[in-house]
Description:
Layout: H1 8-17, E1 24-39, H2 41-44, E2 53-54, E3 58-60, E4 63-70, E5 82-89, E6 96-104, E7 114-117, E8 128-130, E9 136-144, H3 145-148, E10 158-173, H4 187-197, E11 203-207, E12 210-214, H5 216-222, H6 224-231, E13 240-243, H7 248-260, H8 265-268, H9 284-294, H10 298-309, H11 317-326, H12 330-342, H13 344-348, H14 351-359, H15 362-381, H16 388-394, H17 403-407, H18 429-460
Parallel strand pairs: 11-13
Antiparallel strand pairs: 1-10, 2-4, 3-4, 4-5, 5-9, 6-7, 6-8, 6-10, 11-12
Amino acid sequence: MAGTSTTPEKSATAMALMSPTTSRSVTQTVNGSHKFVIQGYSLAKGMGIGKHIASDVFCVGGYQWAIYFYPDGKNPEDNSAYVSAFIALASEGTDVRALFELTLVDQSGQGKHKVHSHFDRSLESGPYTLKYKGSMWGYKRFFRRSVLETSDFLKNDCLKINCTVGVVVSATDCPQLHSISVPESDIGSHFGMLLENMEGSDVTFDVAGEKFPAHKLVLAARSPQFRSKFFEGLDAEKREITISDLEPKVFKAMLHFVYRDTLTEEVDMVPSTTYSDFPASDTLKGKLLAAADKYGLERLKLMCESCLCKDICVSSVANILTLADNCHATELKSVCLKFAAQNLAAVMRSDGFEHMKEKCPWLQSEILKTIAGCESDNCSGGEKSQSVWAQLSEGGDTNGDHADKNDKGKGEGKPFSVQLPNVSMGSSLGKRGRPLLVVCVCRFLLSMSQVMCMLLVQRSH
């Protein structure tokens, strides 16, 4: 049987033509920081050993994190002699490896911060590993309390804690011989120039005497209402259309979005207000939200909802909730309902709540539904949020303090916070039964409010 032979010269030539491949494994950290301000430190003392104040959730490396500060310490053996501070994994995850840094800020301006850090030093056992959601890294004896209260770290009853998280990630890097960078899309700027130059405009809008040239095709492509108006309605042949229900600045901001897909600087940079005497519907953001709802601009509506969400506080939430309900802004409405449910006692004392009851009485039922849902969820999960029962019966007091202590900072944060389970083994039977009682009370109030709403509807007819 004849075989095929390869000469040494041919084999060497083949080997010479085959260039080696390469790859590289890169392990590094994805870093992110969060600043946590604790206002009213003296009022937080006495809340109990093992009980904490939580920061807002922040995201680093694809995971959510939170800072937990224990004014009376976490370790019962220390008898409240130390404050404790921890960084907790607040989202689902297993064996998350990370580096951490906790800094207690020196507020004297001398820069003598107290820093506990994994960064810029070698670690014998490598990065810290958090096994599951709720795992924490930090210090039970973060600072001796008696020293802290006479130091420059505490100023005007305020503490500032900064933290940095570096999530460890690994990736295999394969070299590319050639690459071509593609710039970000500039279609918005081109359409924006079309609007500014008024080139090819085939329709003009008259808004309170101010003229706005535009292009029917662009408007029809962006808005179902304009499409119906120009191609199916009586305005198909009109060259000038009068808009009587929008202010010029609102219509201008809406046109800016239609052409550029962004908000105007005036909308984006408008300072937040408390809305206590200034309804959200009267702001540029609120009017633009209503316009987006009317003309079917869903993306613009969501952008306005995101802006208004940042303005939510105890004094504004009822006004913003009323606006969200009128404009079918479901995302914003959901956030408002949750915030109102979590801060019910303080919200009920606001002027906006009275306005909401007059204009949209059915929203009271929806708040009660949200309260019942929150309480049921907390019961099933074994966790205890600020009890609605306590808010209604004791004016918002859940830790033995008066309502005015807790209400003061309600509007400072966002409507969501992370709380770890806090179940006492020595709780009495009465306390364990309270969540069920709360749900029953809320459901009773809900049914009563629905009956009242039905009576109001019948009376109006």
